């Protein structure tokens, strides 16, 4: 059984890591972007951010003044057992969020939408968000925290089958241009795209594609993977760079996730992660062992399954 105090302690460590230590995959992607950027202001912003990341690690301070809205992604092995059950887990994550807000510190961004009530701890009604997934034949739990900007950098459109790939490209470019011109996102960023599902599923898939996949990762469907590469290059060809200035560094990477949708539609969402790309992951075992990493490894074969029944052996044969 995985104890609650281990969950809370680990969650607090993850909050600090996400706020301060930029993942290496994103840092490498950002350096590659900076190496080819030739826009004066865009280059200045990129170099300033790279220097800021180093200062944040040295000083053990949050890398950005706006620390976003902390959220949790929990993946539970089917055989995992938790002290206090799911209710105890959620209580531990809420305590960890409140403690980390005070101790790191993080900016307390969460307020009531109408009364603007602020508890100064990033905790409130439906905050922080806690989303779940499950894995067969496993007895661990994985905690992923993402500190995602909570204002802009997201758009949605109901497309139709006749819009096709060209329609996807048009909406994608419309979104990036709006993000850049109106200051609605902090570029360059990982762009996540959700295709299909219902509207709420489409939005969830797009945000997870942006926040829970690493730079260089590709969808296992080769045609979708090719589209990811094409959209990355397309996004960097519109004349915008860091923070919307003139340049060619709008997109560090592009990720696409899909869900089966109504036959008459093709929903699409576009999400820009933050220039700081804040995420951290840990796997917890009942014996007290904790393994930290920065790749959420969220989209497993099980998460992308499309059959009625799950058979790992037959799925691996199909993928071979």
From TrEMBL:
GO MF annotations in UniProt: 4 iron, 4 sulfur cluster binding; lyase activity; metal ion binding
Annotated ranges, domain Fe-S hydro-lyase tartrate dehydratase alpha-type catalytic: 10-282
Pfam family name, one: Fumerase
Alphabetical keyword list: 4Fe-4S, Iron, Iron-sulfur, Lyase, Metal-binding
InterPro entries: Class-I_Fumarase/Tartrate_DH, Fe-S_hydro-lyase_TtdA-typ_cat
NCBIfam families reported for this sequence: ttdA_fumA_fumB
Cited PANTHER family: FUMARATE HYDRATASE-RELATED, L(+)-TARTRATE DEHYDRATASE SUBUNIT ALPHA-RELATED
Family the entry assigns: Belongs to the class-I fumarase family.
Protein name: L(+)-tartrate dehydratase alpha subunit
Species per Swiss-Prot/TrEMBL record: Citreimonas salinaria
């Amino acid at each position: 059984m995985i104890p609650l105090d281990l969950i809370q302690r680990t969650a607090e460590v993850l909050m600090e890591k996400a706020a301060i230590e930029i993942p290496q995959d994103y840092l490498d992607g950002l350096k590659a972007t900076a190496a080819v950027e030739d826009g004066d202001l865009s280059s200045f912003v990129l170099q300033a951010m790279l220097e800021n990341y180093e200062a944040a690690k040295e000083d053990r301070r949050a890398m950005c003044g706006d620390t976003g809205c902390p959220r949790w992604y929990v993946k539970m092995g089917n055989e995992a057992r938790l002290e206090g059950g799911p209710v105890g887990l959620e209580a531990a994550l809420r305590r960890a969020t409140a403690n980390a807000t005070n101790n790191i510190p993080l900016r307390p961004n969460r307020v009531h939408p109408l009364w603007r009530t602020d508890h100064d701890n990033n905790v409130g009604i439906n905050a922080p968000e806690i989303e779940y997934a499950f894995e067969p034949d496993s007895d661990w739990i994985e905690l992923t925290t993402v500190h995602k900007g909570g204002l802009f950098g997201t758009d949605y459109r109901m497309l139709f089958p006749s819009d096709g790939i060209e329609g996807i490209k048009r909406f994608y470019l419309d979104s990036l241009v709006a993000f850049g011109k109106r200051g609605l996102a902090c570029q360059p960023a990982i762009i996540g795209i959700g295709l299909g599902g219902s509207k709420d599923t489409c939005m969830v898939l797009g945000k997870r594609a942006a926040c829970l996949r690493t730079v260089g990762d590709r969808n296992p469907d080769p045609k979708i993977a090719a589209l990811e590469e094409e959209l990355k290059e397309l996004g960097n060809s519109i004349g915008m760079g860091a923070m919307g200035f003139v340049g060619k560094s709008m997109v560090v990477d592009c990720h696409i996730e899909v869900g089966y949708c109504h036959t008459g539609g093709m929903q699409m969402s576009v999400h820009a992660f933050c220039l700081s790309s804040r995420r951290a992951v840990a796997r917890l075992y009942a014996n007290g062992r904790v393994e930290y990493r920065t790749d959420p490894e969220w989209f497993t074969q099980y998460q992308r399954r499309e059959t009625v029944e799950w058979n790992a052996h037959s799925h691996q044969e199909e993928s071979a």
